[in-house]
Amino acid sequence: MKIHNFSAGPAILPRTVLEQASAALLDFNGTGLSLIEVSHRDKDFEGVMHEARAAVKRLLGLGDDFEVLYLQGGASLQFAMVPMNLLRPAGKAAYVNTGTWATKAIEDAQKLGEVQVIASSEDKNFSYLPTGYTIPQDVDYLHITSNNTIYGTQMQSFPDSPVPVVCDMSSDIFSRPVPAASMGLIYAGAQKNMGPAGTTLVVIRKDLVGRSGRKLNAMLDYGVHIKGQSMYNTPPVFAVYVSMLTLQWIESQGGLSAMEKRNRAKADLLYSEINRNSLFRPTVTDDSGSLMNVTFVLKETTLEAVFEGLLREAGISGLKGHRSVGGYRASIYNAMPIESVQVLVDVMQALENKYAS
Amino acid sequence: MKIHNFSAGPAILPRTVLEQASAALLDFNGTGLSLIEVSHRDKDFEGVMHEARAAVKRLLGLGDDFEVLYLQGGASLQFAMVPMNLLRPAGKAAYVNTGTWATKAIEDAQKLGEVQVIASSEDKNFSYLPTGYTIPQDVDYLHITSNNTIYGTQMQSFPDSPVPVVCDMSSDIFSRPVPAASMGLIYAGAQKNMGPAGTTLVVIRKDLVGRSGRKLNAMLDYGVHIKGQSMYNTPPVFAVYVSMLTLQWIESQGGLSAMEKRNRAKADLLYSEINRNSLFRPTVTDDSGSLMNVTFVLKETTLEAVFEGLLREAGISGLKGHRSVGGYRASIYNAMPIESVQVLVDVMQALENKYAS
């Protein structure tokens, strides 16, 4: 049975990428060796790292004033590295709190300096995105989260900021065109739209490197990684390779504009059904519903067991909502075909046909 | 042509492990999904993490007083995390300097507190291991490096220490039985004997957790990772899975005693030839030659081009020594069969037969 993978992350990847990765584990570039048993200083792997970094710049339209790094530790380590590198010991940073991950980013920054939470949607369990806030001019940076996986909200536009913007794009990077060149730093755990778990993309404007003036441990210093061309120490070879393949797949499909078109078609299909179907309702309360993570609930929780049985029969996997929100979450990242979303919509309609009063 | 992979790391892995990993990228545990596109909270992957942690305890003979973590960032991040977690702000730490990696560990610790380098072999380019040093009683821990990949030295026994021992075992973990239960903390980048690049093993005695009393960022705090059962955030799924397979392979071969026997046979074969062959000499100057990384040079550098041509013809890869030592380095980790070492010995003998005066 074909499985329709709605997992929030690690998440669906293009089948052709998985096939290429599987083959490279047995023979990498015709070397007769596995991808994971060659030196990272080998010219074949150096080529992979070079291309993986270059593809990011091509897709985001960035020039020589930006550096691209593939680090480890997930977005969670960036919660610490961002203030370590950008927040001066006597400085301040502004954060917008739009969910669990932003909250963790704030907690880590508070261990390193003064943090101003300038807007928050915590009052309504992060079911909307705050607007109309003022960005202070005297902070070292503004931290935002472009997409909130757990709550299903996504920024529809980016703030016009007087200070460098740091954006956690873990769950919607490469899903749509963004004004990357206007930002100071973008980071993203790879395991949604760009590859497997195990590497974290960091894109940083060069003039921000060393901005905090702090004496940092080597692995926590962006400057050290830039000097080492993202190979200061052994990089996560496999995760970088699969990320490179995934970025090349995005380009082959037409780049970020094509991704957005594709993702919007899937999201429109699903949101329309959630709003039309008498048994369901969305959990996001404003117009910031995510194109990546579509969250919804059954109005009658007594139908949950039946609905989940139908989902299983249809081969739908990973639809359970995060425990802090409940209900359902359909993660429909780049690699998901619209056919899988249609299968979900069909199940929702079958449920309605049988149980709607 | 069969390639004989003498790479220092990332390095040779068992072929059966590579085949299992390649298959799991297309279908993991019969789920119909790739290993790298299922949630890490899925029970199938939770089973992998559980088994990967348990196998470490079985192989090292450790009980409930130890915790096992699979982190990210390589041994290089441990250079910082060890003092962050174990070195009290007003405390001291003792380090033995036996090479490049120990030097980097010292530099990172110095950023966090007082470091006493109690022994060093830097005076002779790390070509031997210092002995006869006294371990202070008033330090928070003693840091040692069990095997020095670049210089080809390996500790033949471990110090009897009045303070907790922290040991970087990146390049010889699981290659021989060690008195793990007598140590405080062991760490190792996976990419030599235990798996692919992208995860770092940390084994810590529970009573040392939180010892420094410092307020740490979440991802840099061993206590946070222990509480999260090594899944505080998304772990490096692929690297953990392949590590689990490799540890199971070690067990299937007879465990650490069998590994040592196997590794000693390979090393004996190669060291005997280096010492016998009139064209070569070893670079390690005492009796601490490594069973993992065998370093040697040609007495006449004019023969290098001929030797390297013969190596290529024989399918020998990755034998070039590190630039700081020069010459040659044969890395003969667990997964390397003795047949590959014999091919190298044959080439050395062929060179001697043709060029020795």
Could you characterize the architecture of this molecule?
2 copies of one chain form a homodimer. By secondary structure, chain A is an alpha/beta fold. Chain A contains 9 helices and 14 strands. In chain A, the strands form 4 sheets. In chain A, strands 2-10-9-8-5-3-4 form a 7-stranded mixed sheet, sandwiched between helices. In chain A, helix 4 links the parallel strand 3 (92-97) and strand 4. The first copy, chain A, starts with a strand and ends with a helix. The mean pLDDT of chain A is 97. At the A-B interface, helix 1, helix 3, helix 4 and helix 6 of A face helix 1, helix 3, helix 4 and helix 6 of B.
Overall tally of structural domains of chain A: 2
Largest sheet of chain A: 7 strands, mixed
Q: How far do the termini of chain A sit from each other? A: 32 Å
**What is the CATH third-level topology name of the largest domain in chain A?**
Aspartate Aminotransferase, domain 2
Number of strands of chain A: 14
Instruction: For the largest sheet of chain A, list the strands in their spatial order.
Output: 2-10-9-8-5-3-4
Order of secondary-structure elements of chain A: EHHEHEHEEEEEEEHHHEEHEEH
Mean pLDDT of chain A: 97
Give me the number of helical elements of chain A.
9
Overall geometric form of chain A: globular
Report the β-strand fraction of chain A as a percent range: 15-25%
Which regions of chain A are unreliable across 5 or more consecutive residues at pLDDT < 50?
none
- CATH homologous superfamily title of the largest domain in chain A: Type I PLP-dependent aspartate aminotransferase-like (Major domain)
Oligomer: homodimer
Indicate the CATH architecture of the largest domain in chain A.
3-Layer(aba) Sandwich
Largest interface: A-B, 65 and 65 residues
Structural Rg of chain A = 21 Å
Instruction: Summarize the amount of helix of chain A as a percent range.
Output: 25-40%
Structural class of chain A: alpha/beta
CATH class value of the largest domain in chain A: Alpha Beta
